[in-house]
Amino acid sequence: NADTTVTAVWKAKVYTVSFDNGGGSGTMKQQTVEHGSKYTLPKCTFTAPEGMVFDKWDKGAVGAKITVTSNTTIKAIWKSEGQSGDVMLGDVNGDGKINMRDYSALQRYLNDNSYEIVLANADVTKDGKLNMKDYACLQKYLNGIIKAF
């Protein structure tokens, strides 16, 4: 019977982060994450297949941050118990090569922490921090100024 003001109330979209045991056994509880939020990849609590140990998630190493913009499944990646070489310094994007794509990935990560990288591989200065020193060192390596990290 009178003028009425209606106010819209908005809420963020919420997505599910679920876990695939990748051939291991057990389950991990699904998580809910708001659209665009950063989610830190957790410790794996699946039981490894016989003769295997957890290596990393298909989205990155434990502790890496991913930006969630849809329902996401994160799969466990396993390796043989005796296999070594978890860290390949300089292979920032985790593709098994060290090139300008790694340099670009590190730059994007340092700019806003929203780009997915392999954190252990990115700490090329081995000081436990991820910063512009790592970026500069990777650049020197790619330019042939230094031969190893």
For this entry, give a set of tags.
single chain; 149 residues; alpha+beta; four-stranded mixed β-sheet; two-stranded antiparallel sheet; 6 strands
Instruction: Write down the Rg.
Output: 20 Å
What is the helix fraction of residues, given as a range?
10-25%
Low-confidence stretches: none
| Class based on secondary structure composition and strand pairing | alpha+beta
Q: What's the total helix number?
A: 3
The main sheet comes to: 4 strands, mixed
- The best one-word shape is flat
Q: What is the string of helix and strand elements?
A: EEEEEEHHH
What does it look like?
By secondary structure, the protein is an alpha+beta fold. Helices cover 19% and strands 21% of the residues. The protein has helices at residues 100-112, 119-122, 132-142; strands at residues 14-20, 31-34, 38-40, 52-57, 65-67, 72-80. The strands form 2 sheets. The protein has a 4-stranded mixed beta sheet with strand order 2-1-6-4, with no helix packed on it. Strands 3-5 form a two-stranded antiparallel sheet. The radius of gyration is 20 Å and the shape is flat. The chain starts with 13 loop residues before the first strand and ends in a 7-residue tail after the last helix. 22% of the residues are buried.
